[in-house]
Write a sequence for this structure.
């Protein structure tokens, strides 16, 4: 049984996971690694909680989107190629649908949007105030120069 460096395993697994989603057969042919080993590595990688939970969610959503329009046979083949349990894929699909229909999540998004809008209005108000102050300072500077120039010319006569 051949031993592979962790960097080779990581590179092979990365090729098999989204966004690339190369098939096990393709990676096996390219890297000259047995399909059984690649399948094991991929299953281990999917079973481990990722360091970035958002990446796992994205990968699952990618899988749901990729298989959404497929028939049962195509979906089964995709699951075999990508070492994903069809029941798990269905669970991901239901979870995504539930998350999209969750109105509480939309309320939080709305609140964040309202907070952002309020902050934008405050910043625009502050910007207008500072622009007015700058315009007044520029006007005073011009007037001061004009008055100074006027007194210098009248003092020279």
């Amino acid at each position: 049984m051949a031993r592979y460096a962790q960097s080779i395993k990581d590179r092979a697994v990365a090729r098999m996971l989204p966004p690339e989603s190369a098939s096990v057969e393709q990676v096996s042919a390219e890297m000259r690694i047995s399909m059984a080993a690649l399948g094991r590595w991929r299953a281990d990688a999917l079973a481990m909680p990722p360091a970035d939970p958002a990446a796992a969610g994205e990968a699952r959503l990618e899988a749901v989107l990729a298989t959404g329009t497929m028939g049962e046979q195509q979906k089964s083949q995709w699951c075999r190629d990508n070492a994903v349990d069809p029941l798990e894929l269905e669970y991901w699909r239901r979870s995504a649908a539930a998350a999209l229909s969750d109105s509480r999540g939309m309320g939080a998004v709305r609140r964040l949007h309202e907070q952002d809008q309020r902050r934008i209005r405050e910043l625009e108000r502050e910007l207008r105030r500072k622009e007015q102050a700058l315009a007044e300072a520029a006007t005073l500077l011009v007037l001061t120069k004009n008055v100074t120039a006027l007194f210098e010319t009248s003092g020279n006569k």
